[in-house]
Amino acid sequence: MKANLLLIVCLFTWYNGKAQELALVKEGDHFGYINKSGEYAIEPQYDLSKDFSEGYAAVIKDDKWGFINPSGEWVIEPTHEKVKYFSSGYVLVFNNEQWSYINAKGETLTVPEIEKYYDFEDGVAFYRKGELIGLFDTNGEVVLEPTYDKILSFQNGFAKVQKGEFWGVIDNKGSVVVPAEYDEISDYSATAMWARKGESLGLLKNGEFSAIDGVDKIWDFNPNSDLTYARSDKLIGFINTSGEWVIEPKFEKARAFYNGLAPVYSDKKWGYIDESGDVVIDYQFDDAEIFSKDGLAPVKIKKWGFIDTEGKVVIPTEYDINSGFGGVKAMFTGESEFGFRGGLARVKFKKQWGFLNTKGELLGDKWYENAELFGSNQ
Questions:
Q1: What Pfam families does its record include (predicted)?
Q2: What is residue 5's predicted lDDT score, i.e. its pLDDT?
Q3: Contacts for 145-152 with beta carbons within 8 Å, 24 or more apart?
Q4: Residue 273 is assigned to a structural domain of this protein
Q5: Which of 303, 275, 311, 273 is closest to 287 using CA atoms?
Q6: The whole model's pTM is what?
Q7: What is the extent of the structural domain holding 149?
């Protein structure tokens, strides 16, 4: 009986989490939020709104910002002049010419003396002392004294740092993952990273740097493939995590491998190759993006549509797919902002925005003045 009860609880939690994905849309002069059935979870009623982050969305009422939950109930009353997005349980709010961090209860976090305020990322926030930057955590405690000239955005618990002229990587505990001794370095990857040391460009793997002859640019590895693209003598090919050419440089442009296929460009057209370098979808597109987990990729023939992994156009090329209207920058693993995510793709048609499913059907049979990407509000 206890096991059955646990299963029910787990299923409810899973279903509820799936059901909580909402998209910010604009209809007429007001903003609201729809669910993945195309129904309004929160009717358009706000003059200005932001995406959900960590279960809360910032909205304006009477020229002041507050936060609502997915039911549209006020969690933080609209009393703030400016606000940002919740991250790591806190959000920056601005009142009386001063920024501060508050939680969902409206409680203010006591932090070190700060010259400039930064959002929390992965449980830490930057603080500057003089010319150097350090980190403090969500308890307001310093985890890294000001040490670096620059700390870039944290991604999955890691960030690039600059000390003097050189770059390295730290984690969100402030520990050194890659010493700051490289002229350039990629974002952190457990698989392999590229780095430049003096005139040498190569790969960092297991803490060891190996130069690759003749390469002048390497793109970041992604977790969906053991290959990344690199450039030599103005042409692009693909290398593995040992720095060996698996596909010789012969393409004018290329993008990453996802689902075993990569877009490549030659003679003014885009096609797709497999990880052996064989062309499996002929050069025929004006532009082409990566495949999504749903097995479809955006391609352009004057307008954008979607193909499957066989190269068949399954959604006609009659849409635009450029960005929305200023929500949270999406950070995905294995999914493009321009393609399908979780069974839906955001598209623009005749100056209006909507969402298509993988059959090309319009979500809710409705277009909007503007629409943001679906994202979990958890």
A1: WG_beta_rep
A2: 37
A3: 148/180, 151/126
A4: no
A5: 303
A6: 0.87
A7: 2-221+286-376
